[in-house]
Write a structure and sequence with these properties.
This protein has about 850 residues and is mainly beta. Among the domains are: about 80 residues, no CATH class; about 250 residues, no CATH class. Helices cover about 10% and strands about 50% of the residues. Strand 29 and strand 30 form a beta hairpin. The longest helix is centred in the N-terminal third of the chain and has 21 residues. It is globular. The two termini are about 55 Å apart.
């Protein structure tokens, strides 16, 4: 990496260097310092600067003054951490040091709320209200946090009930019809013994984009979220307490707000339009769906934690229960392949919704779409997610119910030797549905399977129930080898037993999609796995286990500087794709199976299951405070080697769509990161961070041409700079202002990054020249500026705020589908602004 070419490096260096000359002169005369931050990263309370882990801790003051309300609001403040939030609420992909969480697989980081590990994948993207602190731990944390903590851990601490009555009400309004209201009440039910807290939040926004077909501005990226949370603490006596937490939320939001783009250079010459090989960063987004695009979720979570002081140690035990019910529905993706061309609904729509009557929807002819009126069947170039019924629809469900138990002993904190020992158990039941079917114009039943006589018959169905049982034992030993040198040895053993049963009925499809008829023109099976399993698709099971050690050496070189070095292993369980995945892809894309794949010959190696993922990480770091704790500077260098990295692949074709998990055999990510906080003057704080990554795919059996490419979602540069200023305005009222600049470098989303491979078009046109080229499918670098200014008193505040003030237009996600010959692209939020208020009783 050439650091001289990194604009953020120079900016950060200049900010740091410019502060140093004045520090020594003022250090003796000024009394203000950076406040100590207490974290619980090693399952005990410790000073942030003493913990030998790369941690970003966001305290209560920053949460309020930065306006942090969802995960996306704080991720940009952390070097080498990025987030993608697109398809539906909760479908977030978090990349920590280049190791990214994967759709349809387990997460890559542990998400812990009030000391209780959450197994619900949607918990991470819930509303963050009434929160006290957020800690982001980087690098494998499997030794203490177990399953799936291959990239790190995120710990959230909510506000605890108080022994004195307090209440708060707040809210705000913003552009795009946004408003929010929240309230909290806390106090003793039985003084000193039973304390309770109740908080409520509701918010709504119309979003930034509108449906150009229906002229509605509140049906694309809208969101309505109402959440209720309560927490009770029962202090039985001085040694025993119980902490009970409950939450319930309902969400109604938009879903699958993507546009498609081709990436086939041969189409440019064949069809005479540059639109068929266009940089995805230059797309003009048009949303024009005719289905009721929506995502509805209902979530219940309960957790009970006991803390019992036994004298020699604390016994900490928790039990947690989560229940998520979710569905989403949207337009389909296969209109270009003419599957529903001959249905009455498609023919009727083409009479009134075509490129000649609605150029506002389809643009100029073949730029890149061309929808022709009836009589020109099987001609033109349709797009997915269109106003016509020709693209069908898709329906998905993600339902999960889980129960987990954790119990551990934590030694007393005094003395040169400390330890932790614990066990963990979880039972997880997950239902996954992906259905594709016909839009007949008669409405939509929201169900996994709709019969051929229903309003929206199902033509392709993946429907599986997954049952996972987890057992684990873990522990950690910490030794003070000298007064300044600590050795920590941690280890965990995880065992997972996984089973999957198929729920797809053994029936044929509706026959409306001509691409899914058999060789005799009859409706084929609704799932391709039935072709090889005519009596029914069998259940599957497998088990995965891993020993996860971690060794850390921590040296207090002086009162101001700590150095540490660590080695650790992380583990993410293997799993199952929906049954029928392998058969479907072989038929359409691979040679040797008697289908269109004979002409494509993509040589895919996607199976109905995938292996466990194991990460090995090395890290050397420094934590320091200078000038009487006015400057805090932390930095680390690291390398992570990953075997069988689980990678999400999206396939689109004449059959509809398919989601699957594949593996990248071997890859590495290495890099550097640093962050600083500087109390420059009374009330004036500067802060920032820099993250640099170097990554490479070393072996990829599924797509060998990708070897040597960058790891997906591992941008070379990320960082932030900011300033916060607090000035006494009048009386007890402070003027508080904050500006945040955040930068993310160029990012690839797929392993193929310009290497040409065959597409389904080679079969459809009978010529092996229509190969894809994803060289124009990376997301450009971008930066955003957020600002807040307001008045704060002891019991009230009023704040004006703005996000993305420069109205930067950038992509949130690019999902390449190589065998389709293009990508599916999602824009990000534009400029938003508003006013918030709060009043504390």
């Amino acid at each position: 990496m050439n650091l001289s070419k990194k604009p953020l490096v120079g900016a950060l260096a200049a900010a740091l260097v410019s502060t140093i000359p004045s520090l020594s002169a003022q250090a003796q005369s000024e009394s203000f310092t950076i406040e100590e931050v207490v974290v619980t990263a090693r399952k005990r309370s410790e000073n942030l600067q003493d913990v030998p882990i790369a941690i970003t801790a966001i305290d209560e003051g920053t949460i309020e003054r930065a306006g942090i309300e969802r995960a996306s609001d704080y991720i940009g403040l952390i070097p080498n951490v990025t987030l993608v939030d697109t398809a539906n609420v909760g479908d977030t992909q978090v990349s920590i040091r280049g190791v990214v969480s994967t759709r349809d697989a387990e997460s890559t980081f542990a998400y812990v709320v009030d000391g209780v590990l959450s197994t619900n994948p949607n918990s991470f993207n819930e509303e963050l209200f009434d929160v006290k602190q957020i800690e982001v731990l980087k690098g494998p944390q499997g030794a203490l946090y177990g399953r799936n903590a291959v990239a790190g851990a995120i710990l959230v601490t909510t506000q605890a009930p108080t022994n004195e009555f307090e209440a708060k009400i707040g809210g705000g309004v913003g552009n795009n019809g946004a408003y929010k209201v929240n309230a909290m009440i806390s106090g003793p039910i039985i003084e000193d013994t039973l304390l309770g807290r109740l908080s409520i939040s509701t918010r709504e926004t119309d979003g930034f984009y509108e449906n150009d077909f229906t002229n509605q501005d509140d049906v694309v990226d809208f969101i309505e979220d109402t959440s209720v949370r309560t927490r009770f603490i029962w202090n039985v006596n001085e040694d025993l307490s119980f902490d009970f937490r409950a939450g319930y939320s309902e969400v109604d939001a938009g879903a699958i707000n993507f546009n498609a783009a081709f990436a086939i250079p041969a189409f440019v010459d064949a069809l005479g339009s540059e639109e068929f090989f266009k940089d995805v960063n230059d797309l003009d987004f048009v949303f024009q769906f005719n289905t009721p695009n929506g995502n509805e979720q209902e979530t219940l979570d309960l957790a009970l934690k006991a803390d019992w002081n036994l004298g020699f140690a604390d016994f900490v035990a928790s039990v947690a229960y989560n229940d998520l019910e979710e569905y989403l529905i949207s337009d389909g993706t296969s209109a270009t392949f003419y599957g529903y061309e001959l249905t009455g609904a498609c023919q009727n729509d083409r009479a009134t919704i075509n490129s000649f009557t609605r150029p506002d929807l389809f643009g100029g002819q073949l730029d890149p779409f061309l929808v022709l009126p009836p009589g020109a069947d099987f001609q033109g170039v349709y797009g997915p997610y269109t106003a016509t019924a020709c693209d069908g629809y898709q329906y998905q469900e993600r339902n999960q119910e889980d129960l987990s138990i954790d119990a551990r002993l934590v030694s007393a904190e005094d003395g040169p030797f400390s330890w932790i020992g614990g066990v963990y158990f979880a039972e997880i039941e997950r239902e996954v549905v992906v259905a594709y079917g016909a839009d007949t114009g008669a409405g939509f039943d929201r169900a996994p399977y709709v019969s051929p006589t229903g309003p929206n018959p199902t033509d392709l169905l993946f429907w599986d129930d997954f049952d996972t049982t987890v057992y684990a034992a873990y522990g950690q030993l910490e030794f003070d080898l000298t007064d300044t040198l600590e050795l920590a040895i941690a280890a965990r053993y995880d065992y997972e037993d996984r089973e999957v049963s198929n729920q797809v009925p053994n029936v044929t499809n509706s026959g409306l999609n001509i691409n899914l008829l058999d060789a005799n023109g009859n409706p084929g099976p609704i799932n391709p796995a039935f072709a090889n399993n005519p009596a029914g698709i069998p259940d599957r099971d497998d088990s995965f286990s891993q020993f996860q050690p971690k060794v850390t050496l921590n040296w207090a070189a002086s009162d101001e500087i700590n150095f540490y070095a660590s080695y650790g292993i992380g583990f993410r369980s293997g799993g199952f794709n929906s049954v029928g995945t392998e058969d479907l892809l072989n038929f359409w894309f691979n040679a040797g199976f008697g289908g269109p794949g004979e002409d494509v010959n993509a040589q895919l190696q996607v199976t109905d299951d995938y292996d466990k993922e194991v990460s090995t990480a090395y890290e050397i770091g420094m934590k320091s405070e200078f000038f009487d704790r006015r400057l805090r500077l932390n930095a680390a260098v690291f390398r992570t080697d990953v075997e069988d990295n689980q990678f999400f692949e999206f396939f689109a074709g004449p059959f509809g769509l398919l989601r699957s998990v594949t593996t990248i055999d071997e890859m590495y990510v290495q890099g550097f990161e640093a962050d600083f906080t500087f109390a420059a003057a009374e009330g004036l704080t500067l802060y920032g961070g820099i993250g640099l990554l170097d990554s490479e795919i070393e072996k990829n059996s599924n797509r060998p041409l990708s070897e040597g490419n960058d790891v997906p979602q591992a941008p070379e540069t990320t960082g932030n700079l900011g300033v916060e200023f607090v000035y006494p305005a009048f009386g007890n009222v402070d003027l508080v202002s904050r500006i945040d600049w955040q930068y993310t470098g160029e990012m690839w989303f797929h392993t193929l990054q310009g290497e040409q491979t065959p597409t389904i078009w080679n079969n459809l046109f009978g010529a092996p020249v229509f190969n894809q080229d994803m060289s124009k499918s990376s997301r450009d670098s971008f930066s955003t500026v957020d600002a807040r200014i307001g008045l704060e008193a002891d019991n009230w505040s009023v704040t004006a705020w703005g996000r993305n003030l420069t109205d930067e237009e950038y992509l949130q996600e690019v999902i390449p589908a190589p065998e389709f010959g293009g990508s599916f692209n999602h824009p990000s939020a534009l400029r938003s602004y508003g006013v918030d208020f709060s009043y504390r009783f």
